[in-house]
Write a structure and sequence with these properties.
The complex is a heterodimer of chains A (744) and B (232).
Chain A (H helix, E strand, L loop, with lengths): L8 H6 L4 H11 L5 H10 L2 H4 L4 H4 L9 E3 L6 E6 L2 E9 L1 H6 L1 H17 L4 E11 L7 H19 L3 E8 L8 E11 L14 E6 L9 H4 L20 H14 L5 E6 L4 H13 L2 E5 L12 H6 L5 E6 L4 H10 L3 E9 L3 E6 L2 E7 H6 L13 H5 L13 H10 L7 H4 L10 E3 L6 E4 L6 E7 L2 H6 L1 H18 L3 E10 L6 H21 L3 E7 L3 E2 L2 E2 L3 E10 L16 E5 L10 H7 L11 H16 L5 E4 L4 H11 L7 E5 L5 H6 L6 E5 L4 H11 L3 E7 L3 E6 L2 E7 H17 L4
Parallel strand pairs in A: 4-5, 9-12, 17-18, 24-27
Antiparallel strand pairs in A: 1-2, 2-3, 3-6, 4-6, 7-10, 7-11, 8-10, 9-11, 12-13, 14-15, 15-16, 16-21, 17-21, 19-20, 22-25, 22-26, 23-25, 24-26, 27-28
Helix pairs in contact in A: 7-8, 7-10, 8-10, 10-13, 19-20, 19-22, 22-25
Chain B lengths: L1 E6 L6 H11 L3 E6 L10 E4 L19 H11 L3 E5 L1 H8 L6 E3 L7 E9 L15 E8 L3 E3 L2 H9 L3 E6 L18 E5 L5 E4 L17 H14 L1
Parallel strand pairs in B: 1-2, 1-3, 3-4, 4-11
Antiparallel strand pairs in B: 5-8, 6-7, 6-9, 9-10, 10-11
Classes of the chains: A alpha+beta (744), B alpha/beta (232).
Chain lengths: 744, 232
């Protein structure tokens, strides 16, 4: 295909553009586009690049706050954390490629999000990954799990950025569409943030990094369509990662960014050279002239179409001041990177590209970047909600042996220890990881200060399925609660909104509700959303994933010595609970495991209660009144208690007494929100009671830690009595036994 | 006291080693760029962990051809003290300064975790501050750390006290369970015959900053400092 290929309706359709969109292109240009130009429109107007379905909703999110240096719209969000430093972070999806080719898909997801961080001038110091796989009984799940984990490990470990946490769920709704959401956090000087802006007529465009190959062409369009039987054939659209080049690129970029003649920089991500050049020029209101013959390439015979649309990884576009070209080239060559001056900034708002001296692209930049048809997608409340909304607990028996239930919950791969996964990730490099994976939140020291940052990522998709508004709120609440349990105050949110096909009004309703829930709670808690990503079309043959608005929260603590972990510390300490247990089992892991259903209402979330619990917990940690804090989540109170027994410095048992007239399974395994398991030495009891009362937060003493047995009595009657060593074996090894199994 | 850290393209524990030597142990610490051909006078040098040249082909296989390696080999052959950590160990093995090979971990997976090692020989510049038989808590972080050598080499290493560390449990006993990667004879670190070159898979720089509760890694660096003082 060349620029002179005539444009037929078939070619337009192959490019994922509707007849209406093509007519709009003709109208805006006042002529037919050539094939290269059509390819650029196809990529830039894809859902993935243009956010045409989601943008009207995203505009409603709270994005401002006293710490915000940069909100959404750039490569990443930036928050001021004091001492002249800034936290730079974002989460992004790489779902479609990871399903087609799990190793490279996940690897390049990690590579892409790191570049988003260091293009801002920040050194990446931590990665998290939020992963969603299908049912463990599904034939592809083990292969996908192992492939994705190895992909993340191979990339992150090699670059030398620690993967310090994340979350993993398994549910049949992901059988045909797994999710790989990668988060990266970096630290930058607050007054040295770089933006993707191409200003200054005559300034040079520098291409830096790997050579351009034919991989990943149409990646953005692929991520903007549903999967079908031919999906496996799309493997060539998946990019191939080279973490070694990324490492060199990272060091070279941070070195050149010390120079004051660097004007702007952007990663060549989705839609490669097209999106980076068009977006940078558009932000500055400028034009650009490119000589495509100067672009470093892997093979001969690549044409303008391929060069403009390749998604080869580890490439950046820099704008440097005129006259500084040779200094810039020297720095990149020191790091053995391919580098070339490929163009100049112009002032007429037109993008021109030449191939063999002939102009092959001539497009008005603003038209391409902002001209996509606005989609006011219709919404409709899904029909399934009426069917699954009702849950009559009286028709479900309370299990006779709650100890057995507990064991099965601990073995569930969603709840079981993720040690098998995180031990494959370097989670220590750069010596910042204060709290290693396996607690509620990862804690990283902020180099050269006394501060620390706590990070958590969360989203329970079943809650979102039953009520996307509440589901999104719970995702925010729980990620915040995790950070609070580590002793940090939540200061910023980034989100990755994973949904099905937005052309289906029911999916669009889920999306709208989730964004509304996310916005409402963030507004109430006064935590800005500073960056994010939307992944739609997570759907195979009409089967959409559950709504999965993944939320990552960054928390700040002024004194890193005041960080807290979830494990019980010492025999004889008292165990307590902040928050109340309500009669609710809808969407719980217990309900899924034992009744094989997901129905009813998700747990209630009261914003005020949630906030009071956060404030109280932080107060207790800062006053050194408690020795551990652990969020109650999947598997409920019983699972949270066992987890605290198993994750302290020494394995310890516990003797717990619960009272009340609720069903035993609700008390033990219900997933009521705004609850935190704490532990403390007995002499702190009075102080905690006083502060809890003042905060208006219910506080209960549950029992004592000690011995080798995990016992729970309900109304003085024994309900669970299991050896803690046996529980630990189940919890610790279930996932590795699954992941390591060769067949079956 | 002057020490150097070699930076290969893809080294990623270089900053951590630098931090420990420069800021924690207050040494005159220098970077050594892989394209340099001349090695200045140092009391000791470190080949840090990471993925030199992306570990493409085989860990250490390309790095051994870096311009600086010729000088490193000369330095070692003249008695200079060289510590290779993780990828540094792999490079030392590939360049022939240490015997044996490092293969894929037994279960074919990368492993990052805290574990325990037993000090097998404290009469080296790298372990003089350790008690023989003592147990150190130091993390590992590698995909290719399974040490192997042929029978003759193993016998020579054993007879000559060149096996410096073995993986062990918390009480100091070796076992298959305590061996994370299937290393021959539980070997975690070896030295050359003259004991001035040592490679180890575990990362002492990851447990040497007093900010963390575990600082056993300091013993390795303090041994190097002590032996350098004795020589100067």
């Amino acid at each position: 295909m060349t620029a002179s290929t005539p444009i037929t309706p078939e070619i337009v359709a192959e490019h994922g553009l509707s007849p209406e969109e093509y007519a709009r292109i003709q109208e805006l240009l006042n002529r037919d586009p050539n094939l290269v130009e059509l390819g650029i429109f196809s990529a830039m107007w894809s859902e993935h690049c243009s956010y045409k379905s989601s943008r009207p909703h995203l505009k409603t999110l709270p994005t401002e706050g006293s710490r915000v240096i940069q909100g959404p719209g750039e490569n990443a969000g930036v928050l001021d954390i004091g001492d002249g430093l800034a936290a730079v972070f974002k989460i992004e999806s790489h779902n479609h490629p990871s399903f087609i080719e799990p190793h490279q898909g996940a690897a390049t997801g990690v590579g892409g999000i790191m570049r988003d961080i260091f293009t801002m001038g920040a050194r990446p110091i931590a990665l998290l990954d939020s992963l969603r796989f299908g049912d463990i009984g599904h034939e592809k799940t083990r292969y996908l799990l192992n492939g994705v984990v190895k992909g993340i490990a191979d990339y992150g470990n090699c670059v030398g950025v620690p993967t310090v946490g994340g979350d993993i769920y398994f549910d049949a709704c992901y059988n045909g569409n797994i999710l790989v959401n990668a988060f990266c956090l970096g630290i930058a000087k607050a007054d040295r943030i770089f933006l993707g802006s191409a200003s200054g007529v005559g300034n040079a465009l520098l291409y830096v990094g790997s050579k351009t190959g034919r991989d990943g062409i149409h990646g953005a369009s692929m991520a903007s369509a549903e999967f079908d039987d031919a999906t496996e054939e799309k493997r060539p659209t998946v990019q191939v990662g080279d973490p070694f080049t990324e490492k060199l690129l990272l060091e070279a970029c941070l070195e050149i960014m010390k120079k004051d003649w660097v004007v702007g920089v952007q990663d060549m991500g989705a839609a490669g050279l097209s999106s980076s050049s068009f977006e940078m020029a558009e932000r500055a209101g400028m034009g650009m002239e490119l000589d495509l013959d100067a672009v470093p390439r892997r093979e001969e015979g690549m044409n303008a179409y391929e060069l403009m649309l390749s998604e080869s990884q580890e490439r950046m576009l820099f704008v440097v001041e005129k006259g500084r070209e040779s200094e810039a080239l020297d720095i990149f060559r020191k790091w053995d990177l391919d580098v070339a001056v490929i163009g100049r900034v112009t002032d007429d708002g037109i993008f021109r590209a030449k191939e063999n001296g002939v102009e092959v692209v001539n497009l008005p930049i603003q038209t391409v970047v902002t001209g996509a048809l606005k989609c006011d997608r219709p919404t409709r409340k899904p029909a399934y909600l009426a069917e699954v909304g009702a849950l009559d607990l009286s028709s479900r028996d309370v299990p006779a042996d709650c100890g057995e239930v507990l064991k099965q919950l601990l073995a569930s791969p969603t709840i079981a220890s993720k040690q098998f996964v995180y031990e494959q990730y370097d989670h220590m490099v750069r010596l910042n990881t204060l709290v290693l994976p396996g607690s509620d939140a990862a804690v990283l020291r902020v180099p050269e200060t006394d501060k620390a940052l706590a990070l958590s990522v969360d989203c329970n998709p079943r809650y979102g399925y039953l009520d996307p508004y509440v589901g999104a709120q719970i995702a925010v609440a729980e990620a915040c609660r995790n950070v609070v349990c580590a002793g940090a105050e939540p200061i910023g949110v980034t989100n990755c909104l994973n949904f099905g096909n937005p052309e289906n009004p029911e999916i669009m309703w889920q999306f709208q509700e989730a964004v509304r829930g996310l916005g409402d709670l963030c507004r109430f808690l006064d935590i800005p959303v500073v960056s994010g990503n939307v992944s739609l079309y997570n759907e195979t043959k009409g089967e959409a994933i559950y709504p999965t608005p993944t939320i990552a929260v960054v928390g700040l603590m002024a004194d890193r010595s005041l960080h807290c972990t979830q494990g019980f510390k010492q025999e004889g300490h008292v165990i307590g609970l902040l928050g109340s247990t309500l009669e609710e089992l809808g969407g719980s892991e217990y309900q899924k495991l034992f009744w094989n259903e997901c129905r009813g209402k998700p747990p209630r979330l009261d914003s005020k209660t949630e906030q009071s619990v956060h404030r109280l917990c932080l107060d207790l940690i800062r006053k050194r009144l408690i020795q551990s804090a652990h969020d109650c989540s999947e598997g409920g109170l019983a699972v949270a208690l066992v987890e605290s027994c198993m994750t302290g410095p020494k394995l310890v048992g516990a003797a717990i007494e619960l009272n009340g007239d609720m069903r035993a399974d609700v008390l033990l395994f219900g997933e009521s929100q705004s609850r935190i398991v704490i532990s403390f030495s007995e002499d702190a009891l009075h102080g905690i009671e006083t502060l809890a009362k003042k905060a208006g937060v219910p506080f209960f003493v549950l029992g004592l830690m000690g011995g080798q047995d995990f016992q729970i009595k309900i109304n003085q009657k024994e309900s669970i009595n299991e050896n803690i060593l046996m529980l630990e074996d189940i919890w610790k090894n279930s996932l590795s036994r699954y992941g390591n199994r060769v067949a079956g | 006291m002057k020490c150097g850290i070699v930076v290969f393209p893809g080294s990623n524990c270089d900053h951590d080693c630098y931090h420990i030597l420069k800021h924690v142990l207050q040494l005159d610490t220098h970077w050594i760029w892989h394209k340099d051909e001349v090695l200045n006078s140092f009391d000791f040098i470190i080949l840090p962990g990471g993925f030199s040249y992306g570990d493409y082909l085989r860990p250490g296989a390309i790095a051994r051809f870096s311009p600086i390696m010729k000088s490193v080999i000369d330095y070692a052959n003249q008695g200079g003290r060289v510590l290779g950590i993780c990828n540094g160990f792999q490079i030392l093995v590939e360049s022939g300064l240490l015997p044996g090979v490092l293969m894929d971990n037994e279960d074919q997976r990368f492993i990052c975790k805290n574990l325990t090692l037993r000090v097998e020989n404290n009469e080296t510049p790298f372990t003089s501050q350790c008690t023989p038989g003592s147990v150190l808590k130091i993390p590992i972080n590698h995909g290719q750390g399974r040490y192997y050598a042929d029978d003759d080499t193993l016998k020579r290493l054993t007879d000559n006290g060149q096996i410096i560390f073995r993986y062990c449990d918390a009480t100091g006993n070796t076992s298959d369970e305590a061996n994370p990667n299937g290393s021959l004879d539980h070997i975690a670190g070896v030295a050359n015959a003259t004991k001035n070159v040592m490679g180890m898979m575990p990362h002492p720089e990851r447990c040497a900053d007093p900010l963390w509760p575990e600082v056993d890694g300091q013993l390795i660096f303090k041994s190097l400092i002590q032996s350098s003082l004795a020589h100067s």
